[in-house]
Amino acid sequence: MAQRFEPNMARLTAEFHVGFNIVLAIVFLPLLDPLASLLTKLLPDRKTAIDPSAPRYLDEAALDTPSLALANAAHESLHMTHGRSDAQERHDCIEDE
Predict the structure, then answer these.
(1) Is the pTM higher than 0.85?
(2) What angle do CA 87, 72, 60 make, to 5 degrees?
(3) 79 burial via Cβ count (<10 Å: 0-12, 13-18, 19+)
(4) Is the separation of the CB atoms in 59 and 28 below 8 Å?
(5) Calpha distance 88→95 (Å, rounded)
(6) Whole-angstrom Cα distance, residue 31 to residue 39?
(7) The dihedral of CA 65, 67, 71, 74: what is its sign?
(8) Which has the closest alpha carbon to 76: 89, 62, 91, 88?
(9) Rounded to an integer, what distance in angstroms lies between the CA atom of residue 76 and that of residue 67?
């Protein structure tokens, strides 16, 4: 006797999903290198300050807005204090030896 074909919808959905993902991977894998090159050009690495004691948060454009200039100065003083504590810790470690 011939059995009637009854598709299992859950299995068909899973197989379609797997096949679709494989096709997308095949299509987009060759495009990864050009996309990486484009993103590298559009989003270059951040430049780091050479001198760690150089001011990071002071901005002459902020002088027109006193509250912003004071906030930047406060932020810079915290930065300077943090740098001082690191230098002080290194100095204390050297003295302990």
Answers:
(1) no
(2) 110
(3) middle
(4) no
(5) 10
(6) 12
(7) positive
(8) 62
(9) 14
Helix runs in 1-97, H state only: 9-28, 32-42, 66-96
pLDDT band at 86 (very low <50, low <70, confident <90, very high): low
What six digits make up the tokens of 81? 């204090």
- Measured distance CA(92)–CA(86) in Å, rounded: 10
Enter the tokens of residue 25. 């991977």
Apex 93 CA angle, 90 and 96, nearest 5: 155
Amino acid at 22: I
For residues 72 and 62, the answer to whether their CB atoms sit within 8 Å is yes
